[in-house]
Amino acid sequence: RLTTLGVVASIDVWRVATMKPSEEQARPLLALATSLFAEGALPELSQGDFPDALTLAEHFGRGGEAVSQPILRALQRVGAATQHDRHTDRPLQSALVLLVDQLEELFAKGVSASDRAAFAEALKQLVATRRIWIVATLRADLYELAIREPRLKSLKEAGASFDLGLPGPAELADIVRA
């Protein structure tokens, strides 16, 4: 629903990337970079300074405000191409939604504390652009681990959250039927 044209009035073009932190041999930054290069996400990244996911992941690992620059430049290319395709003179604003599915995978044994911190730092820098929106899912039983990571805690406190309660009998029946 978020990416439906008109829901966020200031955004003309949405791109969506989906990732799991355990992908790419439990290297969350590489999983993030790989998801961005995927078809339908931001393949325009390959037109910039980072021609592949590994190079982009290494860039993410450096941290700081520069983390978001390749993505912002790719989003500018998306907006310009869409403007051309739509034959409009008005500059179009593009944005990215990043779905981090199963954020709890960030706390698996194979993910080091430094990789976890670098990933959280990358998310913080991406959100700071206000053109990259992040939706993350997290199991309630691992919530405590997430708020122990200072960057993840600050992201949660600065953003919006939607907590789901346990499903009741009717919801469980719907889950089984669907």
Give a structural overview.
There is one protein chain. Helix 5 links the parallel strand 2 and strand 3. Helix 5 packs parallel to helix 7. The chain starts with 12 loop residues before the first strand and ends with a helix. By secondary structure, the chain is mainly alpha-helical. It is globular, with a radius of gyration of 17 Å. It has a three-stranded parallel β-sheet with strand order 1-2-3. The protein contains eight helices and three strands; from the N terminus they run βααααβαβααα.
Short recap of the structure:
The chain has 178 residues and is mostly helical. Helix content is 45%, strand content 11%.
Protein traits:
178 residues, mainly alpha, 3-stranded parallel β-sheet, 45% helix, 11% strand
Please render the helix and strand layout as text:
Elements: E1 13-19, H1 23-26, H2 28-37, H3 53-61, H4 69-85, E2 94-100, H5 113-128, E3 132-136, H6 143-148, H7 150-158, H8 169-177
Parallel strand pairs: 1-2, 2-3
Helix pairs in contact: 2-3, 5-7
Question: How does the major sheet shape up?
Answer: 3 strands, parallel
Count of helix runs = 8
- Mean pLDDT, rounded to whole units? 93
Count of β-strands: 3
SSE string, helices as H and strands as E: EHHHHEHEHHH
The first-to-last residue Cα distance is 20 Å
Q: Please tell me what the overall shape is.
A: globular
- Portion of residues within helices: 40-55%
